[in-house]
Amino acid sequence: MPIYEYSCKDCAERFEELVSTSAAEKVACPSCGSRQVDRVYSTFATEWKPSNVNWHRLPSRTGW
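and the corresponding structure tokens:
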């Protein structure tokens, strides 16, 4: 389940919510309870390291 960031239109509170992809109901603001919220685009961090790559066999960048 992804974590989304929201901004409330009524009280301007910004908050994060863990939302199921199958959720049909809108998220409510935790401060005022309003359902008038917008999903905000935010940055995220990932650490992706594919398991099928032989990292020790890749050429080093120092020789390029």
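(Above: one complete record from the training split.) The chain has a mean pLDDT of 80.
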